[in-house]
Amino acid sequence: MLNLNALVALRALQELNVLLPSVVLDVHMIGPNISSLVDGQVLRSRSSLTVTLHHGLYHVVHSQLLAPDIVIGMHFSPLTVYVF
């Protein structure tokens, strides 16, 4: 099951997909808070946005994936969101 922060992030990605319809986005959400029940699940929103969920830590999971074009680390807290 996804937590509320992951659902908010998915909604933001859907908006980005609307703003940039010709750009193909292949997003991998990785984190220990993603349930192991949805590990490996692929979500599709239109043909140009794919989100794959991975339970675990980035430094463990990333070796199983293709090299990314960009990595964004986020820390969700009740008060703020940090993007670095």
What labels would you give this structure?
84 residues; alpha+beta; three-stranded mixed β-sheet; two-stranded antiparallel sheet; 5 strands; 24% helix; disordered C terminus
Describe what this molecule looks like in 3D.
The chain is of the alpha+beta class and 84 residues long. It has one domain. Helix content is 24%, strand content 27%. The strands form 2 sheets. It has a 3-stranded mixed beta sheet, with helices on one face. A hairpin with a 4-residue loop joins strand 2 (42-44) and strand 3 (49-55). The longest helix has 16 residues, at 4-19. It is globular. It starts with a helix and ends with a strand.
List the helices and strands and how they pair.
Blueprint lengths: L3 H16 L5 E7 L10 E3 L4 E7 L2 H4 L12 E3 L4 E3 L1
Parallel strand pairs: 1-3
Antiparallel strand pairs: 2-3, 4-5
